[in-house]
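Data card: per-record layout.
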Amino acid sequence: MRLSQLVGNRYKERPAEATLDSHALLLRGGYVRQVANGIYSLLPPGLRVARKIEGIIREEMNRIGGQEVLMPVVLPRELWDESGRYDSVGTELARFPDRTGHDMLLAMTHEEAVVNLCRGETSSYAQLPFMVYQIQTKFRDELRSRGGLIRVREFTMKDAYSFHASQDDLRAYYDVCMNAYRRIFARVGLPEVAVVESDPGMMGGLAAHEFILLTDVGEDTIAVCDTCSYRANFEVAKSRPEAYPEEPKPLEKVHTPGKKTIEEVAAFLGIEPRQTVKAVFYDADNQGKLVMVLIRGDLDVNEAKIARHIQREPAPAEEIRIVAAGAVPGYATAIGLDRTTCTILADHSVAESDNLVCGANEVDYHMRNFNLERDLPGVTPMDVAQVRDGDACPVCEGRLWLRRGIEVGNIFQLGTKYTEAMAMTYTDENGETCIPIMGCYGIGVGRLISAVIEIHHDDYGPKWPVSIAPWQVHVNALNLAASGVKDVAETLYTQLTDAGVETLYDDRDCRAGFQFADADLLGAPFRVIVSERNLKKDQLEWKRRDTGDTGAMPLENAAHTIAGWVKEVLENPQSRREESAQQTTA
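The structure for this 586-residue chain is written out next.
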């Protein structure tokens, strides 16, 4: 590719709207252009990177038995009605009527579509297991798009779906996919991606994991143990609650005039917040009852953990008084509440501590010496607490620390959530009708592009790994009017191209600084400089953009040498070419 003909401009200034380095460099380097909020066009360099990532993904999906299909972006409402998600998913699902008035939607994910496709093609256990995948456009009407390609509304995603006859078979294949994902991320230049437990969320299912690139600019929060391999998304992360056992004491009502908050009550009574019980109310559980969540006063409720039991909106004070049969905001307790109208959930932290202070359901009064097992028999403790920095690891004796990260992939054990709802069946070896079990596996291509830049860049531009670089070699011809420069550069460009090396040739007659600035923004791993000064020595100058190594090489057989370097780095990404640098430096 001749740079003089490349579509897309490059800019020196950082765009004001770019909050992340990857966003700024994608705009500055002419990789993407925004069309609308969260919607981007890819220019040639960006599309070349995307296609290379897609190629790696295809190779790894095919390697584990995946079969590529392509499903439509526009789907009829009926498919999502079958699964129950048409009404349960919020405004992020884009819905519209077609010209006949028929309700349609833009797919944000394709579980319904793939079950609809495969239920007509699968009838026998002998056809299981199998996995199909696609690389397709999706649309999710995000409320807050951010970070360029990190969080967008329209995006390209690889989504794969596997179908199995047993949960054990799904678990085994789940591990196969997990390893395939590790290979994908290593091949695109992200070998340190962490695998963490995650919340299945709207996808549903029995288990889920995310692949997180740990970086301070990430939008996800991850709990990481400093001793063992425990990693979990903040939404599902567990800690080992500290226990404060005491000999239970009798309940005692105490006067706490005007003291409603945990801090006010603790200070008034001369105790620590951990010695209190916090009561948090939510609108309704799955049976329509009000929910009271009890948690130790120094902790906070993790609403994602109780999302399967409650609606997440906090209940207004008026509803607390009416539905909870006299519970008083600021002084609420679960003791004596009518459990036919109020469901009580208690965190493990409350069960592990004795003689706590709780509300008395009476204005200006609290109760001392609350003990969960004695005072609320039948309430089973559960994990509903948010993890904090320094909490004890649930697996070992280490401590948990919260880190930021970018989610670059996810996998789910869906179970029969979709196949059962959509009546997909097969006949087993005994002639019995059975429901297949599903797994789901996703990678966002655009987000992966941004994630790679976040890790591989400097102030001047991306440092693309050779496996996904838009071009492998960038040839700079300095002062085309100088003796021999243009002829050598043209010949080198032709020879490299003929050798199958993806080469970008800066054939513009402009100053060196301007050329080098563009070369940094385009980020080719190998840069070759043709100049009059070096040609007088029968040499070419070279530079590794990704490692910073520099040197000179003989002009004779230069194309062959460069092609060998590219091949070696593709086969061994960790190679830094020190030995070759020493051998070819004059």
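Known properties of this structure: The two ends are 30 Å apart (CA to CA). Residues 319 and 439 are 41 Å apart (CA to CA).

See the next section for split statistics.
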